[in-house]
Design a protein that fits this description.
Helix content is 14%, strand content 11%. By secondary structure, the protein is mostly loops. The structure holds iron/sulfur cluster and FE3-S4 cluster. FE3-S4 cluster (F3S) binds next to loops.
Length: 111
């Protein structure tokens, strides 16, 4: 089992999640974070920290595609262990439908 980051992180990227992870397994894209499914120890402490409610256990229905999505990008992006400011439009984008259209494959700065 693992936790993963899902669509509503896109264009929000609040980063509250990274500070509580005991194994530093969050990775930063330009406008989203992901969790490395093989590094996550399933502690669950990050899930309630996300203001966008974007972190989910993979035991929920139809999470397999998100596990693979998180694995793919965690192997391409830098690790992030320090909270930073959310994206400027984060509050406006929280809960917006169709956020995959906004997704960027570019890496973030990490840190
Ligand atoms: Fe890190 Fe625990 Fe969240 Fe997994 S569930 S990403 S180990 S805080
Ligand atoms: Fe994304 Fe939520 Fe973390 S919006 S950056 S998963 S706190």
């Amino acid at each position: 089992m693992t936790y993963i980051v899902t669509e509503n992180c896109i264009a929000c990227k609040y980063t509250d999640c990274v500070e509580v992870c005991p194994v530093d397994c969050f990775y930063e894209g330009e406008n989203m974070l992901v969790i490395h499914p093989d590094e996550c120890i399933d502690c669950g402490v990050c899930e309630p920290e996300c203001p966008a409610d974007a972190i989910r256990p993979d035991t929920e229905p139809e999470m397999e595609k998100w596990v693979e999505f998180n694995r793919k990008y965690s192997e391409m992006w830098p690790v992030i262990i320090t909270k930073k400011d959310p994206l400027p439009e984060a509050d406006a984008n929280d809960g917006k439908p169709g956020k995959m259209e906004l997704f960027s494959e570019n890496p973030g700065e990490g840190g």
